[in-house]
Amino acid sequence: MTGSCQDAAASDEPAGGSARLIVAGNASVDLLLGPLAPWPTPGTEVVVERSTWRVGGALGNTALALAQLGVEARLVWDVGDDMLGTWLTDRMAAAGDPPRVLEGATSLTVALNHPGGERTFVSHLGHLAQSEPDALANAIETAHTGDLLLVGGSFLLPRWRPALPALFARARERGVRTALDTGWPTEGWSAAVRAELTATLAHADLFLPNLDEARGLLDAPHADVDTALAGLAERVAGRSVVKLGARGAGLLDAGDQVIESAPAVRVNDTVGAGDTFNALLLSALRDGMAVRSALRCAVHGTSHALARAPRQLPRWSVLRAELAHTEPDTPASPLEAAS
């Protein structure tokens, strides 16, 4: 069967190669509360139906999704030296490499879920404010040609941000494929933020924004998917995959717009859904899948996870088999090609 989620071997290991995933970025503790509607009036108190403590941050969510899939990854991350840092380290123990422990409080995010699936985040940077990118630089220098590096949550890592253009350029020199999911800039989409991100994207193989983030980068708040993908193509060295929430995700492939629609599922919460998507997409690309097949795996696999409470993914080999279908062969791009 070709061009499908079953293209790769039947195990959870890379298909016929030694390409590894490296995930670097922010991990935090999330406190989920909701549903909340409307927004409380200042000075008042409201009671919500649900509260959950959970591993959060782009790296935390992605690493746990990869662990559920049975896909190994090298992790580059930090925690603070407080109770929350200990809790976060324990919860992440099965996901891979332990964190570097920094002095101070661990980052905390309160995620407020609203009816209809939207959410609002209130975060304290904590240890992320002092995290240095030296461990990321070391991971790039020790990576192998063809390895796939994801940097997630970079806008919440202030000391990483100015270093990313040079680090991504170095990764490209060493043959390490790079992916970037910045999240939303806390200071908003200023001209300086757009210039900063564009400098990194000039060396990136894959950019993974949602539609609102793409609009922010393009300074086009009402851009549709067509316009966003076309605009990103002018800024990213490789390709972009734009996440569309309940609508699925889209990309350009050989000049053609490809939209993979998400199946209708009942969703408990969407916090970290984009990171689950990233884990699935990169697992597929690691295995050398054509980008359209990788997109299908990521969209449908994410829906599979969101339909379960608590969120759960099957093993990667099982998921490929579940989603397998025939489609025309698609030539692999440099990002998709195995090392």
Describe the overall structure.
This protein is of the alpha/beta class and 339 residues long. The protein has a domain at 21-26 and 57-78 and 128-323: UDP-N-acetylmuramoyl-L-alanine:D-glutamate ligase. The chain is 31% helix and 20% strand. The chain contains ten helices and 14 strands. The chain has helices spanning 58-69, 83-91, 134-142, 164-173, 191-201, 211-218, 225-233, 273-286, 291-306, 316-323, and strands spanning 21-25, 28-34, 50-56, 73-76, 78-80, 100-102, 108-113, 119-124, 148-152, 177-181, 206-207, 239-243, 249-253, 256-260. It has an eight-stranded mixed sheet with strand order 4-1-9-10-11-12-13-14, sandwiched between helices. A four-stranded mixed sheet has the order 3-2-7-8. Strand 7 and strand 8 form a beta hairpin. Helix 4 (164-173) runs parallel beside helix 5. It is globular. It starts with 20 loop residues before the first strand and ends in a 16-residue tail after the last helix. 46% of the residues are buried.
